[in-house]
Amino acid sequence: MATLETKAANQAEDFQIESRYCYDMLAQIKLEVRQLKNQHIQDSQFVIDRFSNKRPLNDDEQRINVPKAITCNESKREVSVLQNVANKQVDKVFTFDKVFGPKAQQRSIYDQAISPIVKEVLDGFNCTVFAYGHTGTGKTYTMEGEMSNKAGELPAEAGIIPRAVRQIFDTLEGQNADYSVKVTFWELYNKEITNLLASEEPSKSSEERQKKHVSLMEDGKGCVVVRGLEEEAVYSATDIYNLLERGAARRRTTDTLLNKRSSRSHSVFTITIHVKEMTVGDEELIKCGKLNLVDLAGSENISRSGAREARAREAGEINKSLLTLGRVITALVEHSFHIA
Ligand SMILES: Nc1ncnc2c1ncn2[C@@H]1O[C@H](COP(=O)(O)OP(=O)(O)OP(=O)(O)O)[C@@H](O)[C@H]1O
After folding, report:
1. What is the Cα–Cα distance from 128 to 34, expressed in whole angstroms?
2. What angle do CA 142, 143, 146 make, to 5 degrees?
3. Å from CA of 138 to ligand 1 middle
4. Among residues 5, 61, 66, 232, which is most buried (max CB within 10 A)?
5. DSSP codes joined into one string, 37-50
6. Which of 213, 238, 214, 237 is nearest to 226 (CA)?
7. First-last CA distance in the chain
8. Which contiguous run of DSSP H or E holds residue 135?
């Protein structure tokens, strides 16, 4: 009899295929939701862009000659999943807003897919970028990559988060703006939220630390807030890189058959920017934009990842939450009032 976890895993997989999210060991899907909402726009509107990014084969995969599972056609914006059914090649073709092949560099993905979103955040919009995909496909690499080198320069392998941070500070400083920037970084593991930026309290046991409750609540205005999560004020890109390094090192990861350092949690890094605008008369206008950068835990085929017992339960939780997220996004796209 199928366990609840296995059912959730199977449902998640079916969902991914049915809802045209092509998934595969080698394919990484980035899904981004931009919520256009600020002081001047009352109605919020959602724009969904889907990007597909295929990572290159790693050394182990090349050594054992892993067969090609997908191909990308960047100009046609298509990803084909290669399938052989009863000795017949029956490929499935998926179309995206933009497809990045295995040779795509971190910089080009950022410039084409993310930089326009960061500009909107600086204009006072709230935007969210999700990295979504099968385990081991490069979500954390794309979101974090290499943070920054000692000289504070961006290395070629820097991912979306360090690049977004750099763009935000370069723009604000270039405009000579009167601004403040705050960040939060937290992870959702099973049903527990952990503040990844909490200061170290070596005297306290992990049990005691967990008692400091951080929980998801509704604020009564239809918005979700994370209660107990303190925002950290930051004054430079380097401040954020230091915090990020501390936070990223605390994320729960484990060794699976599909990824040596697999993230077992969803992580959410949020940058909130307040910019003082010109004043008219006595009125002072503050522009506020928020950028959420979400690195989701990998959707997982439990048998292929080698997960057992607690790990299989954990994978079940991951798949269940991804399934729910998928349903929420589908409901937003269809402007439904209810989530099926
Ligand atoms: N474009 C790329 N170029 C080179 N190496 C990559 C690329 N994408 C991913 N990798 C490497 O592949 C491995 C798996 O990537 P990563 O940990 O980012 O996957 P993930 O999707 O976050 O997995 P999980 O869901 O299990 O956490 C890492 O060693 C990473 O450095």
Report:
1. 5
2. 75
3. 3
4. 5
5. EETTEEEEEEEEEE
6. 214
7. 25
8. none
Residue 168 CA to residue 183 CA, distance in Å, equals: 12
**219-277 pLDDT tens trace:** 777 777 888 888 999 999 988 988 888 888 877 666 655 555 667 788 899 999 999 88
Tokens describing residue 51: 């990007």
One DSSP character per residue, 121-167 reads HHTT-EEEEEEEEBTTSSHHHHHTBS---TTSPPPTTB-HHHHHHHH
Closest CA to 32 of 169, 103, 125: 125
Probe ligand 1: pick from 16, 54, 109, 259, max atoms within 8 Å of CB?
Answer: 259
Q: Which residue has the tokens 């998801």?
A: 216
* H-helix segments, the chain: 4-18, 59-63, 106-109, 115-122, 139-143, 160-174, 206-211, 237-250, 302-305, 309-333
Residue 228: which residues within 8 A CB-CB, separation 6 or more? 195, 212, 213, 214, 215
Contact 8, 292 (CB under 8 A): no
How far is the centre of ligand 1, averaged over its atoms, from the C-alpha of 169 (Å)?
Answer: 27
Contact 159, 234 (CB under 8 A): no
**pLDDT, tens only, 122-160:** 999 888 898 888 888 888 889 889 876 666 678 999 999
Cα–Cα distance, 258 to 300 (Å, whole number)? 9
The three-class DSSP label of residue 203 is coil
State whether residue 150 is helix, strand or coil: coil
Using the mean position of ligand 1's atoms as its centre, give its distance from the Cα of residue 145 in Å: 9
Instruction: Name the DSSP letter for residue 231.
Output: P
Given a contact cutoff of 8 angstroms between Cβ atoms, the answer to whether 29 and 21 are in contact is: yes
Backbone angles phi, psi at 301, to 5 degrees: -90, 110
For ligand 1, whether the C-beta of 106 sits within 6 Å is no
Which amino acid does the sequence have at 192? Answer: E
